[in-house]
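Morning. Coffee machine broken again, so started the prediction first thing and wrote up yesterday's gels while waiting. Chain of 488 residues, entered below exactly as on the submission form.
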Amino acid sequence: MEGKIRVNGLEFKLPPKPRKKDILFSDLKKKDQKWKRTELPDTLSEETAASHSEFISTEFERRKSGVWFMNNGKPTYITGEHYYYLNWCKLDIGYPEYRDRDRRFFIFWEICKNDPECFGMVMVKHRREGASYKGAAMLLYEITSRYNSHGGIISKTGVDAKSLFTDKLVYMFRHLPFFFQPIIDGSDNPKSTLSFNAPGQKISKNFKKIVKSEALNSKIDWRNTKDNSYDSVKLIRYLCDEGGKWVDANVEKNWQVVRSCLTLGDKIIGKCFMPTTVNEMADSGGERFKNIWDDSSIEERDGNGRTRSGMYSYFTPAYDGYEGFIDEYGMSVVDTPTKEQARFIGKNIGAKEYLQNVREGYKKNTTKLSEEKRQRPFTVEEAFRSDSRHSPFDVERIYQQMDYNEESEGLIVKGDFIWKDGMKDTKVLWKPGSTGRWRISWLPPEERRNNIKMKGNRKCPGNEIEMVAGCDPYDHDTTTDGRRSDRS
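Came back before lunch.
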């Protein structure tokens, strides 16, 4: 649709496309049109800021509104926050490179920010995707431009939160251009809190004189990983990193605590970014995070228009934006590359085939195969797979059968098992129906159904040579009179 883009099921209205001459790189040949950082002028310093007022004003406007640039002949829009991250947030390996995957990510984040009924974004990712760096940039973007604002960081452990703060966020801040750095209170290399409480000096609006500035009275800090971390603290931004790996605390309980920190009455005043790869379901934090994920579906909202968690879920498969499979214009090479793409990436296959080949190499070791899928998932379902090492069964083969069943939908029939004439303990009949609770692909022939034989005075399955199954359905550990449920 013209002027609009859909990302993960949500629609974003693009700003009006400017005149061609105002689109970055429009003066270049098509093959040369690609993202390039805007460098600081060599002569720009705090002392010469007045003579560079137009450059500084332009950078503030791009940070606020985003930019359009020509990318291989196509006008492409990136949000202000994406521009800030790309152009000014230095990583340990230098400044970020443009990725179309990141363009979609930041547009989805913009949707979350602009939606008054959304608390933010919960993201299932693959390993080494760079989400922590983006989260750090998102904190700096917001808190360094607002008065009386607090941004918080928690990760899977306190050590990880401190590392994210000092090695990523503070490092970024120290490399921002001076005109994007508020005056800080204390050292520019803090260990726990980056505080913008000190009044300082700033360039006046027309960049011709120095005037005293009011302190932002804002800060960014980190906390140890506990259920009640940030309890009763007013937050504008909350980076909950690696929520699917929390072991020492319950991320689900913490979110219930922090959620109220992002509100004023019924009004949402702050936003959360919660990116993670997912640990084992049972005992390593994965199951608690999955509860938050399941509660974040944009398809399921309450009467107030909010999801159960308040956030929106976001996922892209591992082969989208996978390092080593990005063409010179930042586009993901998912399938067979074009000649130009193959020449640039040095490979004749796309990321999907490459990762599939890795999986094929593990086909004789289903434990490693299951872990590979969980670490670099193609689907959300793969991200939440249970670890084969913690099961007496071959979990990967179970999932393979489940995947086969899903792909063979035409062979599956929905329906219910019912008692004949509604009389309990008589014959069981199969009743097909689109709303049925069971899905089956096969039933034994009529003459082998309801086959019962007696062992003494006990009824037992009569097809035990071919198949047998038993179930004691229960949803409580004990019966009403206190006895334990007999699950045998």
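The chain has twelve helices and 20 strands. Going to sketch it on the whiteboard this afternoon.
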